[in-house]
Design brief:
- It is a single chain.
- This protein has two domains: 147 residues, Cupredoxins -  blue copper proteins (Immunoglobulin-like, Sandwich); 126 residues, Cupredoxins -  blue copper proteins (Immunoglobulin-like), CATH 2.60.40.420.
- It is built from three helices and 23 strands.
- It is mainly beta and 288 residues long.
- The structure holds copper (II) ion.
- Copper (II) ion (CU) binds next to loops.
């Protein structure tokens, strides 16, 4: 299967790209914040993402501003990389079949990258969703990259409350940024029960050999230790969690979405009021 092929060599590599061309602001940023790296905030470096034709592996990465991520494609068709609104710098980058692109992230922030050929950003819900005209519908192709300063910071905190509306059945807002040790609350305003639990993606897709294996283990452990499933009863069921591990936490509702390990992405379950939106969300935890 083409989608399962893990390429170890590229047939071609596109030249490195400095995003946004904002060299001036990058330099200014480098001068203003170069504190000593903190062990607690050490990012599990995921410097390589593979696009398999339907989805990306891994679906979450955490790098330090100024670092480069290689997006390699094992797909037979072109990848149209695009960034969702809210990213500090806009990304639009085509990656040819079996080629790779180097993306340099100059500014801290949360970057949701998706394949614009099959996936779009929905303003109303604030997250990506599969395009109805895509062959792979209802599977969206997306990957989330957290870019922080060397000490794990560089993002402004948001509110710490996540709610499930009774209309769309998604987690709202899709992304929050909190401090380590800060309580995050969930409120379910929907008629159906929901669950918030860590994404199984790193567990299902380990890379057992080489340096990547060790990195996968770090991510796996981080995810496993992040939090226990939170059951949210119908009509105003509440839950709370406090995360101590800085970094990017991806969670989902296992009642209404499932990770598809052959497609490398999540699938929404039918008969779901929020269909085809994936009932997932991310929590960025900043070190204190
Ligand atoms: Cu749900």
């Amino acid at each position: 299967m083409q989608a399962m092929t893990r390429r170890t060599a590229f047939t071609s590599v596109l030249a490195g790209t400095v995003l946004g061309g904002a060299i001036g602001s990058s330099l200014a940023f480098a001068q203003m914040s170069m504190p000593a790296p903190s062990k607690r905030a050490a990012a599990p470096a995921r410097s390589r993402i593979t696009f398999h034709g339907q989805g990306f592996d891994p679906m979450t990465s955490h790098i330090v501003a100024g670092e480069t991520i290689t997006v390699a494609s094992s797909a037979a068709r072109p990848l149209k990389l695009a960034s969702a609104p809210g990213a500090p710098e806009k990304i639009e980058h085509a990656v040819a079949p079996h080629a790779a692109a180097s993306l340099k992230f100059a500014k801290p922030g949360l970057y949701v990258l998706y394949d614009a050929a099959t996936t779009r950003f929905d303003d109303k819900v604030g997250q990506v969703v599969a395009r109805h005209d895509a062959k792979q519908f209802p599977l969206p192709a997306y990957t989330v990259i957290l870019v922080t300063t060397a000490n794990g910071r560089g993002l402004a905190t948001t509110g710490s409350r996540v709610s499930i509306p009774d209309s769309y059945m998604t987690f709202e807002p899709w992304a929050i940024v909190v401090n380590a040790g800060q309580e995050i609350t969930f409120v379910n305003n929907d008629m159906d029960p929901h669950i918030a639990m860590p994404s199984p993606e790193p567990m299902l897709m380990p890379n057992p050999s080489g340096a990547g294996g060790a990195l996968s283990s770090v991510v796996w452990l981080e995810k496993m230790q992040s939090f226990a499933p939170i059951a949210l009863a119908a009509k105003t069921g509440k839950g709370a969690v406090t995360l101590s591990q800085p970094g990017l936490h991806h969670y989902y509702c296992p009642i209404h979405a499932v990770y598809d390990s052959t497609a490398y992405t999540f699938a929404p379950l039918k008969s779901y009021g929020g269909y085809p939106f994936i009932m997932d969300g991310v929590i960025v935890v900043l070190p204190t």
